[in-house]
# Entry
Amino acid sequence: MQRRTFLQAAAAAPVVLPAGYAATEHKLPKYHVVSHYSPSAHPGMPGPYPGQVVSVHSEKSIDVATEKSNAAVVAEMLSRGMRALTGDNDVRDSWARFISPSDVVGIKVNCSGAPGIMSTPEVVAEIIRNVVAVGVKPASIWIYERFEEQIVTVHYDRYVPAGVHIWTAEHMRGSIQAYDPATYVETNFFDEDDTRSNLIRLVCSPFTKIINVPNMKDHGASGVTGCLKNIAYGDFSNVARSHSGAVTNTYSFIGTLAMVEPLRSKTVLQVTDGLRAVWHGGPFSPNRKFRFYPKQIMVGTDPVAIDRLILDIIDNKRKAEHAVSVWDRSMKYVSATGDHMNNPDINQFIREPGHIEYAAHLGLGVYDLDKIKVRSIEV
Amino acid sequence: MLFLAGLAILLPSLYWDHPVDTAAALRQAGIARLLVPAAQVDAWRKAGFTANAFDPATAAKATAPHVEYQMDVASATRVPWVDANGWQFIRTPSRTYFYDAPAGAAAMAAAEAYAYGVQAVIQAAPEDVDSLGRMLRFLGNLDAPRLPTRANFGIIDDGSDEMGEVMNLMARHNLLFDVIPSPDPAYDLIVRLGAGGFTKEDIADPYAFAIRMRHQLTDDKRLVRIYGSNVVIVRLTGDGTGEQVHLLNYGKPEVKALHVRVLGSYPQHHVAVFGHPRAALEDFSVAGGATEFTIPELGPYAIVYLGNGQLSR
# Structure
């Protein structure tokens, strides 16, 4: 196959900015996307269920005092959610719509807040149990994340069958060894020397399908982090360069990364773990006072629709805690040297929750709440 | 043949002012040639070494290679500061340079001097004798004739400290330059002060000026780009049929995968990586008028030979 180079300039991707945003606040960088992978006929994002989200809640899913998850309840939540999403009676049929026995499945977890918050092992284990039930061998399943020092605190190996790979891209921070040099987004944000962000090699090969398992968190740069941020910044190298001073380019970079093939086509399912959540200080969670417990799992194929719901969950919680909104762009709340990890009214950056709507305009899903169909299930 | 026979690059020398009873450590390190204080020459010669007198005060001082890491590396603009000498080697290549290298710095100093083809004398810490010896043997085995400097920028040097800082910052950010006596169309951009050039005010902030030059050139036209480290500095030499890409890693840990883009199509390649005798380039590609490859592991120094004909090795 010939290498195909896609040049994605600001002018080539007209974006309607959310209300209240001045165009001058978002000078879009020029992105040069290089990939020799073509999109599949039906890319995984937004997938077969655009604008549809199944939200399953259970009071019994997690013990707030101990933060211990109930595996049996989690299994029931996931089963009900998947069946509601696909309309199947047998949950195996639901999973078989996304995964085939011959697939090599990557499970993109989020461990940046571990051990305070992460893709809960009980949730990940239940996903794997269903993938194995479809016929995928454990050796064809990879739990993966970028940073080794984060994932080792979670001990997924104690919850999943022998043979399942637990893999990280960077044993040593900054190493690009595990990234594909031929698949990248090149852009110069702040005159940094290294202007490329490369896709994890495993995503190119051997993965054939990816299941995204993010959390619901506040994020100091992007406003919130859910499906889009986890699949974008979690699959590419050298992304922290998008922040400098009070400014972050998450507004356009997250969606741009998520669009890169083959990541977009292979990410077929979003399972958002909202048993725990973070309303300030994210994506990290060293301070328990900023954690809360939505006790829900959201299932779908549309990352934008799910993130649109997460946005309200986080901002409403902040409102309830009398903290400044994630939408507030006032510099009076921004301080790089301030105590942003302890004070919910201090931000490290001007947050960019508009990244979700930007991703919608790229074609990754449905942002308009009026067009998002949410099915709520109580277990 | 890729490279015409040329002047071999001189190997750096060890300056050793310790007494002759340290000879065993030097022999074990494979070091037989020394520069010593004049008063010790005879003693070292009697001990079987090729010893010559040297006075460090007669040489230009080189800074010990070093990286000053920032506490917060999350911000793109807070890159580590690198103490490197390449800029002054390019500026004044004919001098003899003296490194007073603290522990851990001698091997890197030798590689740096070799890469820029300058005569250098290194005072090494006793614990570095072994690593320096290994580096000198590695350099001595390279087939790297001295080739012309390859650069995007031609700098007409006024000798000022300000211009020196510009060179320092440009070298730090791998904006390849050479010092030239007069404007030369062989270079993409000419940097000079005065009539038709830049003002003192333009270069008052050398970092801002270096970035300005980068923008003016554009990254696509840069002869070399590197990805995967912000403490590696590149030196490029070549003669039109082939290139020597010298890669100097000033950081202590090895770089696990350094990706390099060299402007031009060079299907032939060979690499020598210090500490990795069986190293080979990975992800090698020639496309779009550029040659790209990955060095899987990079210690202090590697040299990549690229050719568009037959490689000589």
Q: What stands out?
A: The mean pLDDT of chain A is 93. The radius of gyration of chain A is 19 Å. DSSP finds ten helices and 19 strands in chain A.
